[in-house]
Amino acid sequence: MNILVCIKQVPDTTEIKINPETNTLMREGVPSIVNTFDSYALELGVRLKEEHGGKVTVMSMGPDQAKAALKECLSVGADEAYLLSDRAFGGSDTLATSFILASFAEHLEKEKGKFDLILCGKQAIDGDTGQVGPEMAEHLDIAQVTYATDIKAEGNKTLVKRENDQGYDWIEVLSPAVITVTKSGFEPRYATLKSKIAANKAEIHVLDSQSINIDVEKCGLKGSPTKVKKSYTPKKENNGIIINEETASASVQKLMSLITDKKVI
Amino acid sequence: MSANIKNKNVWVFIETEYGKEKKVGFELLKPGREIADAVNQELVALVFGKDVKDVARKALAYGADKVILVDNPIFERYSTDAVTDTLMDLINKYNPDTILIGATINGRDFGPRVACRLKTGLTADCTSISYNEETGNVKWTRPAFGGNLMADIECPNNRPQMGTVRPGVYKLPLFNEDNKGEIIEEGCNISQNDIRTKIIETIKEVTENINLEEAEIIVSGGRGLGKAENFSYIRDLAKALGGAVGSSRAAVDSGWIPHAHQVGQTGKTVAPKVYIACGISGAIQHLAGMSGSDTIIAINKDKNAPIFEVAHYGIVGDLFEVIPEFIKEIDKYKNS
Ligand SMILES: Cc1cc2nc3c(=O)[nH]c(=O)nc-3n(C[C@H](O)[C@H](O)[C@H](O)COP(=O)(O)OP(=O)(O)OC[C@H]3O[C@@H](n4cnc5c(N)ncnc54)[C@H](O)[C@@H]3O)c2cc1C
Ligand SMILES: Cc1cc2nc3c(=O)[nH]c(=O)nc-3n(C[C@H](O)[C@H](O)[C@H](O)COP(=O)(O)OP(=O)(O)OC[C@H]3O[C@@H](n4cnc5c(N)ncnc54)[C@H](O)[C@@H]3O)c2cc1C
Fold first, then answer.
1. Could you state, in order of their start, the residue ranges of all structural domains in chain B?
2. Which of A98, B160, B203, B240 is such that its CA lies 20 to 30 A from the CA of A214?
3. What is the pLDDT of residue A237?
């Protein structure tokens, strides 16, 4: 199988703190990581390759430092890595981002042949929209399945396990397809010392807008219909009542009188 | 599609499955009404589904001026292609100004697909929406960075402007059976062959036969339970209150309960009348799924647990002591 995995380097949002004086995000010193869900997508991709043969290519759009994320992917089973970096891409919303990534994928296909599957994370833990995968599928005019937790290839069939409100569906999807992956039972593997050293030596291919011959009018702020007008840290109201009596029974009685007074139950 | 005078009316997509609506569709008729009134346009509900005429009538009762109904067996279960293609045909025919979609698993699947085909903007997973008089656009408010940052977003130059909105952030509008309006039936030109996906098996995992998103009371358990068997404490409390059982991811990861019960960023977004978190620390990813609840009650033995920062009522204590007492008191109260 010829598999492409889209990798976004993101700040580890679980480490982000808010400066209580200025009420802004403190991004300094926050480590950059491979987006959590992209690691799960990569793991599924590598497992498919191990079972059925083929290749896993990873690609990322971002600044030069995203090379580190791609190297990490090479150390856990990706075969080749591409970075697309260009100032013209700054400020892209999901429509523009997905256009760039779709053009990038089409460019890589000239060299690597058609991708059977393009895997994305379910969402990036910074932008949190989850829109890039489906919009990429639309730009490429191929099928999509979102919220996947497992992928199986049987003959020429691709089967995807997708979350729904009550459990899961197994969905058969026509390939090529974009599949967005959520956390699955297949924990991303760890790199070994040897694979880390090899990944460090490996080349990351770096491309820009010219090398993929993209219409920059459709990229960046110009190509983005949504505009972020304002961003701010959420207000935290803290007027809850904390009950800490001597015994559990005293605490519960106090709670009951409060919530029955207020007709909570 | 760029901003154009010919675009008008506010559309709300009412998602259905097995002929039954998802509540969020009706919830969105509330902000939809406000926006439509502000610009003096009509509020139109879109109902796709199999045998869903009663859903269309309910949409009128919840305040829609009109309903566009596509009643077709192809919509019994969800597929990206059938919904996208049908919605596109209708958008091209009627040119709406604004489209609101519930930020459900399926809404977040076809929403971007449609927005991309229209080359328009889509704001994701909003927690509040309003009309900005100054600019004449909808102002979409949404959390990003795992809930650490809020953003106000507008789509100034393209129509329709679109957004997905989280379930539970808006309460249902008043239901009035006397509200009358037109139900426009539209056909759908999709055949099974146009659909690139096929559901071949459905696995139901929610053991308790209740939909978390629709439950009025949810009792959730976390790592503090210590082991799978101790979920009986949560089930017993839920039973005493007539509520549903939820969980944190740590409990799911430990294999104590299926994922379908998970609340949070990678689970369900819920907004019940009462949410009771037991042995859950209150990580931001958990809060993302339940902070819209009307009343939050937390039981945790660590008085510094972040869950107490969002709780309206908190008991600092051992859940294994507190829950049995709580059940006792509830039973007493019920019998009084
Ligand atoms: C506060 C804030 C709010 C925003 N809200 C919106 C909004 O509502 N609508 C909107 O259109 N834009 C929005 N944006 C812009 C959006 O964050 C960017 O377009 C971003 O590049 C992609 O969105 P995302 O991070 O949400 O990715 P997602 O759509 O969540 O990403 C899904 C997957 O796509 C792949 N992917 C995404 N980006 C890359 C990349 N650079 N390289 C490789 N693979 C990638 C990964 O596999 C990832 O897991 C917002 C930006 C900010 C700062
Ligand atoms: C990308 C991403 C997505 C995520 N998505 C989700 C999500 O959707 N949902 C989610 O829940 N998490 C999610 N998480 C995980 C989240 O960060 C936390 O790890 C998780 O919520 C912790 O679960 P917990 O509160 O049950 O466990 P812990 O954080 O370990 O907390 C256990 C709590 O139980 C208390 N306790 C222990 N014993 C007792 C006792 N006897 N009586 C009373 N209290 C007791 C402790 O004081 C503690 O506060 C996500 C993380 C990431 C990185």
1. 10-194, 212-335
2. B160
3. 64
Q: Does residue A176 have a cis bond before it (omega within 30 degrees)?
A: yes
Mutate to test the pocket of ligand 2, among B166, B230, B266 (most ligand atoms within 8 A of CB): B266
Q: Give the whole-angstrom CA distance, residue B158 versus residue B61.
A: 31
Whether this model's ipTM surpasses 0.85 comes out as yes
Q: Measured in angstroms, how far is the CA atom of residue A124 from the centroid of ligand 1? A: 6
- Measured from CB, residues less than 6 Å from any atom of ligand 1 are A 6-8, 35, 37-38, 60-62, 92-95, 97, 101, 120-121, 123-124, 126-133, 226, 228, 231; B 122-124, 142, 144, 149, 151, 153
For B10-194, the fitting CATH number among 3.40.50.880, 3.10.20.740, 3.40.430.10, 3.40.50.620 is 3.40.50.620
Q: What is the pLDDT of residue B2?
A: 46
pLDDT of A30 reads 87
Reported as a single tens digit per residue, the pLDDT across A139-170 is 999 999 999 999 999 988 999 999 988 889 99
CATH architecture of A2-218: 3-Layer(aba) Sandwich (3.40)
| Alpha helices (H) in chain B, listed in sequence order | 23-27, 29-38, 53-61, 80-94, 107-118, 231-241, 249-253, 284-287, 307-310, 319-335
State in Å: Cα A18 to ligand 2 middle: 20
> In this model, does residue A24 exceed pLDDT 80?
no
Find chain A residues with C-beta within 8 A of B321's C-beta.
248
- B155: contact with A, CB 8 A cutoff: yes
Q: Which CATH architecture has domain B212-335?
A: 3-Layer(aba) Sandwich (3.40)
- Judged against a pLDDT cut of 90, whether residue A239 lies above it is answered with no
Q: Each residue of A44-100: pLDDT tens digit? A: 999 999 999 999 999 999 999 999 999 999 999 999 999 999 999 999 999 999 999
Average pLDDT along chain B, 336 residues, taken 10 residues at a time: 72 97 96 97 98 98 98 97 98 98 97 98 97 97 89 97 94 94 95 94 75 90 97 96 95 94 90 96 92 94 94 97 97 90
Give the integer Cα–Cα distance in Å for A231 and A233.
Answer: 7
Strands of chain B (E only): list them: 10-14, 16-17, 20-21, 43-49, 66-71, 98-102, 122-126, 128-132, 137-144, 149-154, 161-165, 182-185, 197-204, 217-221, 244-247, 274-278, 295-300, 313-316
| Inter-chain CB proximity A229 and B153 less than 8 Å | yes
B4 shares contact with chain A (CB less than 8 Å): no
Domain segments of chain A as ranges: 2-218
The two domains B10-194 and B212-335 share their CATH topology (first three levels equal): yes
Identify the sign of the CA torsion B295, B300, B302, B303. Answer: positive
What digits encode the pLDDT tens for the residues A52-65? 999 999 999 999 99
| Residue B145 contacts A, CB cutoff 8 Å | yes
Report the nearest atom of ligand 1 relative to the CA of B163.
8
Q: Is the CB of B64 under 6 A from ligand 2?
A: no
For the whole model, what pTM was predicted?
Answer: 0.88
List CB contacts (< 8 A) between A226 and chain B: 121-123, 153-155
Using only the alpha carbons of chain A, give its radius of gyration: 22
Determine whether the interchain pair A231/B105 forms a contact, defined as Cβ–Cβ distance below 8 Å: no
